[in-house]
Every structure is written in structure tokens, then in C-alpha cells.
Amino acid sequence: MNGYMGKILRLDLTNKQKKTISTSDYEEFLGGHGIGSAIFFDAVKDKTISPFNPKNVITLMTSPLSGTLAPSAGGRTEVQGLGPQPYPTEWFTRSNFGGRFSAMLKYAGYDGIVIEGKADKPTWINIVNEDVVFEDADGLWGMDTYSTQEEIWKEVSGNPSNSPEDREWYQKDRGRDDGRTTQKPAVVAIGPSGEKKSRIGALIHEAGNAAGQGGFGGVFGSKNLKAISVLGTNSIEVADPNALMKAREWIHENYEYDEEDPECEHPLDYGSFPGFSFITDAPGSGMGFWPKVEPARPQGCLSCPKNCRMRTESGYGSESICVEVVMYGGQSPKERYKSANLAQRHGINVYPISTTGHKYLYDLYKQGFLGENGEVETDLPFEKYGEMEFIRALLNKISSREGIGDDLSEGVVRAAEKWGRLEQDLSSGLLQRPNWGYPQHYDPRIEVNWPYGSILGSRDINEHGFNWDIHWIPQVSTMLGLDPVFDAEEVVDNVSNAVVPFEGNKSMFDFGEDNIYSKDMVKTIAWQRYYSRSWKQSVQYCDWFFPNFHNPSNSPTNQGFTPEAEPKFFNAVTGRNISFKDGMNIGKRIWNLDRSIWALQGRHRDMEKFADYVYEVPKKAPYFVSSKQNGEWKWENGKGRTLDRDKFESWKDRYYEFEGWNTETGRPTRGNLEELDLGYVADELEEKDKI
Amino acid sequence: MSENKLLEKPSKEKAEEIMREVGFEERLEAVKMTSMTGDKKKSIYSLKNLVNFLEVNKGINPFETNKKGGITYIDLNETVEWIKNTLNDKKLAYGIQSRLKEDESYMNNLNSIKPLLDQRFEQCKEVLNKV
Amino acid sequence: MVNRRDFLKGIAGGAGAAVAGFALGSSTDLMKEVEGRTFENLKSMVEAPPSEAYLLVDREKCAGCRSCMLACSLVHEGKENLSLSRIQVIENPLAGFPDDLVQEQCRQCQYPECVAACPTGALSVDEVNGNVRLVDEEKCIGCQRCIEACDQINNPARAAWNHEDEYSLKCDLCIDTPHWEENGGPDGKQACVEICPVNAIKTTDQIPVQIGQKGYKVNLRSSKWKELGFPVE
């Protein structure tokens, strides 16, 4: 089918074997996450093994839209497998990274890579079109992720730099029949941290694309796999090129920022505050206030109309966005971005050591628990906390597993457990890890779509779709003392208009103290789970661009492009004719497949509970969400709230019932799986006594 | 009006007290809010921490230049109490308190107290020869 | 429209002045070569009428998303392939701004080496369509001499090779886009220009200075770009 390359590469590192799987066997799962889950389910017979067991299978999957003009979907890669980061169970989990790796993989002729086994010595994989070679990585082992990429660029195409003489068409010797390219191979690599099997080891691609959460860098390390390089020159067939081009023009004209008249990017008097951090926000917006410091350009993943990252003159902070650039306060923006680069070079997952991580360590130092004379001895230079010296030392220790770094390389939560601190610090909230040991993101006591989705899954969901509209924009304007930029009712109208197949149900977006336990909130969570599993993680539209509910570029109603855009691009590329709702149904199927894999790993409803502080420690700061009070929609302040333990348990009943799961165990049932054409999954659950 | 006239210079002993790093139990809890990472708690252990957190000493309006950096949130009343009782700087605390207005936005209140915080921090550094 | 007078003005910069001299017949025996080209070669080429439009790019504005390349490949070939794009964006993500990126587009040269090198007339100046230097895919025999000729003066060659259908590709300013319903060409739309999210590609009907890069790599940043926090100088 158009959009797919037709085969998936299956590499066995133990036996140095290369096989291909036919993509058509899995196309019903769309791409990305769906195909990854389905392959994992088939390939890993015993799902209770350790992530570091050579039998763990890691998938790197593209989408039918990878490598095409579909906005924001052209360059993302979905990574899945058993992950060492989730706590206490090492769930089957996922991560994703941007850039252009998935596009290059498709140009090389593959829809994905499935990795199993363990190489007997350090290895990297060199893919140039149909040539797939297991290369010796002895010379690369120990190198940081940047040097590794530069060495591989040199090896594959001979163009490590961008100097005029290096701007060439490569592969010319084979180019007459096989094609040539000016592009460097796309490399995904681990740093020293992953080599040492860290549970917070990341996969890094180019300067700042990282698959961090999950700990797949550590899994690569356990497999002696240093890097994968891909270079390709094949074409992706597109069913309706004109429709694809016209659809992109439609986005460009109606929904993108307008750099020539950036009015929409400055809706507030205070400059381009992150009120519109999704689509109308300014290019380069993901990186903070860097342009004031040194010259830079906005930079985007392949085919992105938003271009949220930057590249800077010094290179510090290049392509880093989001948590990397706020990881460490530092004394200046420059130090902030230097810290980001250090983490990318080491190949460390930034989230677990960012503010909730190093702040926790410093709090423990202040308590006299950590330090030179502490209960846990360490020579971390706490007296330099806030300065570069501290973060440099911390990252070095984690990366090398030296001293306290050996504990921290297991992640802060496992370190705290080893130190006997975990229970008390999760209870007091000194350590803010509400679900599966992952750092708190948006507030679990108030904006419940975030934590509910996370606890029903395997990780912090990191899905901002509802968040911008129902929390962040009003949060900013209220803190600024402005009238809300948008009226709560207008926003809720636009969001609820778009949430097919539950459209029109405005109560789904009432985050009032009672309604967060309602059956409406069941639908909110279900919608987000299905949407994420299909359109976001399988078709791989970027979280910072999709979904789009409320868009001030599109006057007069400000209605965003969801649910129109999602199938528009998918159908133009693939030639299928699926509706948005069809996609949601596939998302539901994938969500249930994941849920079944977790059941096979032993998931039970009793495990789906938050850390104690979520129930016991009231929210201290103002936190605004949409809510209907006395018949009127408004932005309500959730300050002072905790989550009610019993009410949340009842909400779980309602959610499990809605899905057709067993309310006692929280596991899928044969009936509900067969309805989703997952009878074979039910068979395995039955066989393992997990249904 | 010159901001230097707002508060008298502290003595060396007083400046040392104001500038000291307090213990774990005496910390002030702050929250950094950003679009990307949500709310993150921060621990404030000293006047220097506070000034750095609010970025007042860089002349940065956290809502303007720090445009994507997010909102640096402290509970203003709690901060007054902390300065008064924990740092034991009554003058600064009263100065701040007198500038806070109940029906003003967080931002306007914060902006109104920032010059005072900045001045106090600079004064103490000067007295302690740390400029 | 660019008339002949504009054309002469356009090339009358730097070494271009000497070339213009040749065109007007006031040659000097001392001048054996200009820009690596022989007099005879130049004389034959200069007779090509100038293209009525040119692509200009701004290297410091480009965001590296390669949407232009994907659009180019899509509207012309009906497929997605960076190797089949007639505009190339080349990145070194680990280098510092602005050395991390270059955009390399066809220059619609005043003295088109590619046209001169073509042995079959497949690559010609299309006088019906604004004098764009155009490949007739039917006539192209795949000898790649146009690519080699371009490669002599440009890194990388702006003419590309379609290895799947075995013909040369070069920018036609979207005159011939069988997979896009818009009308292209000097007076029409260009896919790359239409799709660039930061407006880092434009067309002009003024002939760019031919010598060096400056005529083609220009500053397309307005004061609005500065408002967004990026350098405009």
C-alpha cells in the first residue's frame, strides 16, 4: 500500500541474522506504535522477562506518513519494548523521538526495525538501502553521542562537516541505479550512560532528538548496540500527491503562524508568552528566551510547519527543547543550554534528573542525609549547587556509575528505595513521582486527564492536547492579571466539538472537584488514550502540533483542525479512505493490545494507585482549569485540592466497565478483546491465566 | 525616587544573617510553572536563591523577556513571613508587605516588590564585600 | 519581465562586467578565461536569453525542515524522496548557526553549463515558458553530462538524477508539475515557495548577480523576524 515501504527489518544481534517481515501483515495497526505493539506481542513469548534479557525485543517504527509532507509527522520514530525505567514493574513501554530517522529508514526501504538478541561485542548497524551490515563498534564504545554520530557520518558518507567541499552528492559510485543523496546518514546512538545499562539511558539522534523515557538507551547497551545508521535513496509512493500538497497548503494558509505578520503569536501584551505553545506560537518557541542571548535560527524536524527548536551560534541547546532546556536552572541561559548539551552527549534521559531529581538530592543534602558526612556518602559538590560544576559532576557520575552515580543510574526512585527513603518521600511529596516512578508533569490532583492516562498506561503520558486549552492558556493569563485570553465556554465548545466520537459532550471538560470522578471524565480519558495510540503514536503526528482544538488563526470561531486534518493526510498518502472515527477505533484496539501485554506482565487494578502525596498533600499553588460552576463555565482555581482515594477507585470501576474490562482485576476480558478482533490475544491471556 | 533610599544598609552582622543559607525545615517552597513541564517545586534556602529564582537581579521581567521560561511562583504572604521570621529581616519584610495589594494580580505584586529584593540583596553583598 | 537592458545590468557586477563585455563584442585578448569558462564556451552560452524568474533563499532564516524538498519531489515526481528534490537543504546539526545549514537551489544560470553540455537538446531554454532552463524527460538519454557540468561549478550539483526513471532533474520553477493542480512557472506558483513555513524561499524577476553566492543567497528577514527574537542583520 502507498505510504508503506512493504517490509520491516528484523535483526538478531546474537546470531547476526537479518530477516524481513512483510509490513502488510501488520498494516491494520496503522504504523508506529500499533505495529510495534503487535510485533512485540508476537515476538516475545514470555513477557515477564527483564528488559535487559537478550530476548527483549525493541522496535523502532515509522509511520506511513514518515518521510512525507504530512505536517509534523514526517520525522518521528516510535520506540517500544520492555523498559527498565518504570517502577516498580518494568512495563512494556514506549518513547518517541523527532528529527529525520524514520524518514531515512523509509528511504532506505523499511517501515521499521525490530531488534532482538545481544551482540557478543560492541556493534553498530549500518544500513544503506538494501545493504545492512553489523559493524564493529569497539572504536565507538565510550564515545559520547555527538562524537559517535560524527564518526559514523565520516565512515558512511565521508562528510562529517558542512564545509563547501563537503556539500556533495554521496553514494555516486552506486548512484546511477541506486540513487544519490546530499544528506548525512541519520544516526541514533547511545552515550556512555546507555552503555552502562542505565535505566535512565536515552537514545539520541542528532543534537537534541531523544527517546528518553523508558530507558531504552540502557536496553541498547545491554544488547551491545551502540548505534544504528540509515541512509536511503528510495521513493515513498504517495496515493494522491495533489491532495497531499493541497492539504499542506490548507494548513499553511489557515492554521500556521505567520512570520510576516506574527500578530497571532503575540496575543498578550507581554510578548510571545507560551500561551499558544502549540500551533500559532512562534518558531523556536520550544527553547525559551535564547535569541536574546546569541544568534540562532528556528529549526524543525522533517516536514514540520512549526519548527519549535533552534540552532544556536555556540551550538549550546541546539535542538533541545522542553525539559532539557529547563533541566537545570543554572546561573544564566547559556549555562542552562550547556547543561542540556551535556545531558545529550552523555545520552541521559533528562526528565528524571531535572528539577524533581536534582532538587530532591539537594533537599536530602540539606537534611544531612546525602553528602560527605551523610548517611549516604557522596562527594557531589553540593556547595556548587546552581552552578555548572554541580550538574557537570552529577551527569559525569551517572554516566560513569561512579560513586553515588551507580545508584542514580538506576533512576532517582530506585536510588531512594535503596536508601530507604522512598516511602516517606513519596508520602510527603518531597519526591514528586505520582505514577510508575515518573516525575510529576501537570498536576495529578487537578488536571486529571494527565495522571489518569498515565496510571492506566506505563509512563507519564506527556500528551499536551487538552492541556494547552483547558489549563495552560488560562493559567498564564490569570497569573498575568489579564482577562482570560479566551472565554472558558468558547474553549470548551471548540474542544468538545472536535472529540469525535464523543463530540458535543462538554462535561468531559469540566475539571471541577466532583466531575473529575464522573463518567464524563471516563470518556475524556478514553478519547485521549485512543487518539494517542492511533493518530499520535501510530500515525505519529507530533504532540506539539496535534490535536488542534482551538486555534486563533482560524477566525472567527477559533476552531482548530482536529478532527479534519488527521485522516486528510493519512488518506492522501495511503490511498485508504478511513474516517477520524475509524482511526479512533484502531486506537482503541491498540490500547487494548497494550493493556493485554501489561496484564501478561502481571498488571492488576491494585497497582494502579498514585503516590500517597497525590491523595494527602494539598496543591499549594494556583492552578486553573475549565469547570462549570452554577451553570456557568469558568476557569476554576484548583489550589488546595487533593485527589480523593475512594472516589478515584470508584472512577476506576467506571472506566474499566466502559472498556469492558474486569472491574476486579482491571484486565481485558475475552468478550471485549473478541469485539476488537483480538481473540488471539485473549487466547494467550487465558493460557497464562491473566484474563 | 532612587531605590537606594528605600531601605537602610544593614550592619555586617545583620547582612550575614540575612544572607545565610537556612536549614531544610526552614526552606521556602516555590513553584516553577512552564508550558512544557508543568509545575515543578523548588526549594528556596536563601535570599540569593530567592533572587535567582525570581531572576530579579538580572532585570528580567519573568513574564516578558523570560517569555518561554514560565512563571516563577511564590506565595507572596508566605514569603513575607519567611523573610520576617526565618531570614529575620523585618525591614525588608515590612517593605514588601506594604507594597502588596490584595486585589492586584500576582504579576503586578511581584513586579512591585522586585526592586526591594534586588536592593536588599545588593546591599548585603556590598556590606559583606561580595560585590 | 526582464528586458535585455535589465539583463545586462544584472550581470554587470564583479567579474560579470567582463562577461558582459564579451557579450557586447568588446573582447580583449588578455581575457582567455572567465570563471573557468573559455571564451568560445561563454559566447555560445551568453546567447541564451535570461530566465524570467529565479529562486532566492535565505540561509539564516531556513528552519531545516526540508518541507521544500518534500514538496518539490511530490509535485514533480508524485513521490516523496529527498534524492529527487531539485532544491537541496544540507544540514550538520552539530555545527553552530549559521554554519549548520545550507540551501542549494538551481540558479537558472545566465550561462547555463547544463544546457551547453546536453548532447540531445533535452535540456534547453524554454522560450515559451519564460526562458526557464528545462529538461525534457522524454528526450533525456541519461548521460548525466548536465549534472557533471553543473558539478564543475556548484557544490553540490543543482541538477539531480532520478535513478528510478533514469533522467536528469533540475528546477523548472514548477512549469511542469503533473502532480499539482496549480500553475507554476515564472508567473505562477512554486511548490517550495508556497510551502516554506518561514518564507525562506522567494522568487524574483530580477537577474541575480551571477558571480559567487550573494546574488542567490539573500536576506529575506523583515523586522518581524526580529520581533520573533532572531537576527535580521
Shape estimate of chain B: globular
Strand order of the largest sheet of chain C: 1-2
Strand fraction of chain C equals 15-25%
Runs of chain B in which pLDDT lies below 50 for 5 or more consecutive residues are: 57-68
- The value of Rg of chain C in angstroms is 18 Å
User: What is the terminal separation of chain B in angstroms?
Assistant: 23 Å
Strand-helix topology:
The complex is a heterotrimer of chains A (691), B (131) and C (233).
Chain A: E1 7-12, E2 17-22, H1 32-43, E3 58-61, E4 77-82, E5 92-97, H2 101-107, E6 112-116, E7 123-128, E8 131-136, H3 145-157, H4 172-178, E9 186-189, H5 192-195, E10 203-205, E11 209-211, H6 216-222, E12 225-231, E13 236-237, H7 241-254, E14 296-299, E15 309-312, H8 333-346, H9 355-366, E16 370-371, E17 376-377, H10 388-400, H11 404-408, H12 412-418, H13 422-428, H14 449-456, H15 465-480, H16 488-498, H17 519-536, H18 565-574, H19 580-600, H20 612-616, E18 624-629, E19 632-637, H21 645-659, H22 670-675, H23 679-687
Parallel strand pairs in A: 1-6, 7-12, 16-17
Antiparallel strand pairs in A: 1-2, 3-4, 3-6, 4-5, 7-8, 9-10, 9-12, 10-11, 14-15, 18-19
Chain B: H1 12-19, E1 28-34, E2 38-44, H2 47-54, E3 71-73, H3 76-86, H4 90-99, H5 106-127
Antiparallel strand pairs in B: 1-2, 1-3
Helix pairs in contact in B: 1-5, 2-5, 3-4, 4-5
Chain C: H1 4-11, H2 16-23, E1 33-34, E2 37-38, H3 39-46, E3 54-57, H4 67-77, E4 79-80, E5 88-91, E6 101-104, H5 113-117, E7 123-126, E8 132-135, H6 145-153, E9 160-162, E10 167-169, H7 191-195, E11 201-204, H8 223-227
Antiparallel strand pairs in C: 1-2, 3-11, 5-6, 7-8, 9-10
